[in-house]
Specification:
heterodimer, A: alpha/beta, TIM Barrel, 8-stranded parallel β-sheet, 10 strands, globular, disordered N terminus, B: alpha/beta, Rossmann fold, 5-stranded parallel β-sheet, about 40% helix, about 15% strand
């Protein structure tokens, strides 16, 4: 068994209903007792700490403000195995990278609640003088130590935790002074885990969302965020947005009102802009339908999440273009990568460089938007049709309850994720890139998309198969996974060599 | 001229694939598994988030000839330490071990990374971006060499 399940998961039948106060108090007590640093979480002291943070270090406020002003903020990723390395990283990103939001990525042992292994990773990192962990083991360090990271920067800090088990990391991080938490039940359970049932993931994130709303009840608005980039591998916008809508409904039911939505870039200017706009629109449509009229749902655009080229120059183009895509698409923030992406975790300097490349691209995008462009308007309408068909079906399967509907829809394949490691989904849906560079659906699995939409996807993909001289089969999907990482010599060689020689 | 395995013999060779440790990056491993299967090898697919001992357990249960370890998230160095020793303890002294992916945290010269993993007892290490035909070719050469009593084609 590779993953640890939550012990207190079977209290009541699963539903989207807000966890009652007394029940939540009991759950918190049990959760905080799972590792010694849990005892260092003092909720009232944490509320005071947040109230004393200047507004510009509170992510919920910063996101609202940036949205109102039409800005696109920058945020990298980053996490190292010791407090000292992490502090140096965060100050470099803040000062050298001009990051608007400073991140802390947790390591993969922490994500899987393997805190003993994380402890070993800290010790090995110290012994060898280089990070042996791919992130910061926040739970092992605890509230007091982790707060030194917040003190070291002059920007809001966000936790990036890639986990279906957010309960203790969320407690420690929010208490330490982080004002944002990236993670959600549907997106992370179905994209980042293998054995954890979706029901457990939903319960775990209901806890975190309930915690964020408890801060709100005490006058501190915390930012929550949904990782709609999913497996990061050629996710068509509609799939990401379906999960965004369902996750935001789950969060809103627990009382969250500041909820960001992250979309991985398809690297197609029009498709990305359409996705960014429709994501927010669809979330608001379903929130309103459920009676939540005051939820703030800004969209974040993420630099390419698939395979990267091994050439710094090619990577620089993707980083810069990613800034353009985010800004033109109207994203409130962009999550950046670096020129080292193909080689693994970047140095702080390379990470800062990625931020600055992106920032310049955002600056140059000025206020350019695509509204009124026929292809943009058409793509938005296609995405709306896809999203509504699936979300309506999921909610219907749950008799209106997003939690119940999600579990049943996963079982039935109505909700499916491309390239997912999770046993909770069928994993039959297969995306591929069409001849014009849009991500399309090659095989929908059992997802209930309207026939006219699927016909459109097929027509587009057949055009590509013909153009590339390939059969219309799964190889279209596999080659789309590699495409962007191919060397320039393969993607765009000088076209006239042959003719010149003849 | 290096000797290479007759493709018809591939079906007699069983390979275990999986992503080691707390790593969920399944895409490359899945494509590799598909390619090895298409090439005709017998494949036991463990998927993402596979602890070292599960690779070894599966290798014993299926009498595997090789284990293909993927790691993309940077912590592969910690996860792979002692892997060969675990194999030896389980009586799989000579099982062919390949590892590939983004194996360490940070941009490190490939020669350094490769040496680290060969020193750990892996027979071959593959850098990020390796395409599947290259792996099939290496397997063919190594199993041809093994038929002649050598450990790998390069040894």
């Amino acid at each position: 068994m590779a993953e640890v399940l939550s012990p207190d998961s079977v209290a009541s039948p699963l539903s989207e209903i807000r966890i009652p106060d007394d029940e939540f108090a009991r759950m918190r007590k049990e959760n905080l007792a799972r590792w010694p640093t849990g005892a260092g979480v003092d909720f009232d002291a944490a509320v005071d700490y947040h109230k004393n943070l200047p507004m510009h270090k509170r992510l919920a406020w910063v996101m609202r403000r940036a949205d109102a002003e039409g800005r696109t903020l920058t945020q990298p990723r980053g996490g190292f195995g010791t407090l000292e390395m992490q502090r140096e990283l965060m100050t470099t990103l803040d000062r050298e990278g001009l990051a608007d939001i400073v991140p802390t990525t947790t390591d993969s042992y922490t994500r899987n609640e393997r805190w003993e292994q994380a402890q070993h990773g800290i010790e090995e990192s110290k012994r060898l003088g280089r990070s042996m962990l791919n992130g910061f083991p926040m739970v092992n360090y605890g509230v007091e130590d982790t707060r030194r990271l917040i003190e070291a920067i002059d920007k809001p800090a966000v936790m990036l935790t890639g986990t279906a088990m957010p309960r203790l990391t969320g407690e420690v991080g929010y208490a330490a002074g982080y004002s944002g938490y990236l993670g959600s039940a549907i997106a992370y359970t179905l994209s980042y885990t293998k054995e954890i049932p979706i029901e457990i993931g939903i319960r775990n994130y209901q806890y975190l969302d309930r915690l964020a709303s408890m801060y709100l009840e005490h006058g501190v608005e915390q930012h929550r965020r949904q990782p709609g980039f999913l497996t990061g591998t050629n996710i068509p916008p509609c799939i990401a947005i379906v999960t965004a809508v369902l996750d935001v409904l789950l969060a809103a039911a627990q009382g969250v009102r500041n909820y960001g939505l992250e979309l991985g870039q398809t690297l197609h200017l029009i498709q990305d802009a359409a996705a960014i706009r429709v994501c927010r629109e669809m979330c608001q449509e379903y929130l309103t339908r459920k009676g939540y009229v005051d939820a703030f749902t800004p969209v974040t655009s993420l630099h390419w999440m698939g395979a990267w080229p091994h050439d710094d120059a090619q990577s620089a183009a993707i980083v810069a273009y990613g800034g353009t895509l985010a800004a033109v698409g109207g994203a409130v923030s962009v999550t950046t990568k670096s020129l080292h992406e193909a080689f693994g975790i970047p140095t702080p300097e390379a990470n800062a460089e990625g931020l600055r490349v992106t920032r310049m691209a955002i600056y140059m995008a000025r206020s350019i938007k695509l509204d009124g462009l026929p292809e943009y308007e058409r793509e938005k309408e296609v995405i709306r049709k896809e999203v509504r068909a699936v979300v309506d079906k999921v909610l219907e399967m749950g008799d209106g309850d997003a939690a119940v509907g999600t579990v049943r829809a996963c079982e039935a394949g109505v909700l499916d994720i491309p390239w997912s490691p999770s046993r909770s989904v069928k994993g039959r849906i297969l995306p591929a890139r069409d001849a014009d560079g849009y991500l399309r659906i090659l095989n929908p699995g059992d997802m209930p998309f309207p026939k006219e939409v699927l016909d459109y996807h097929e027509e587009r993909l057949r055009k590509r198969a013909e153009k590339d001289g390939m059969p219309y089969d799964h190889e279209l999907a596999v080659s789309s996974v590699y495409e962007i990482s191919e060397p320039l010599q393969a993607l765009a060689p000088f076209p006239y060599v042959q003719e010149a020689a003849e | 001229m290096t000797e290479t395995l007759d493709p018809s013999k591939r079906q007699d060779i069983t390979l275990v694939t999986g992503v080691i440790g707390s790593d969920t990056h399944i895409v490359g491993n899945r494509i590799l598994s598909m390619a090895l299967e298409e090439a005709g090898y017998s494949i036991v697919i463990l998927g993402a988030l596979t602890p070292a001992d599960e690779f070894i357990k599966a290798a014993i249960e299926t009498a595997a000839d090789g284990i293909m370890v993927s790691s993309l998230y940077g912590q592969g160095e910690l996860d792979c330490r002692g892997f060969r020793e675990l194999c030896v303890e389980a009586g799989l002294d000579d099982i062919l071990l390949y590892v590939g992916g983004n194996l360490v945290v940070g941009k490190t010269p490939w020669e350094v990374v490769e040496k680290r993993f060969l020193d750990m007892g892996f027979d071959r290490a593959f850098p990020p971006g390796t395409r599947t035909p290259e792996v099939v070719e290496a397997l063919d050469r190594d199993f041809a060499a093994r038929a002649r009593g050598k450990r790998t084609a390069d040894s």
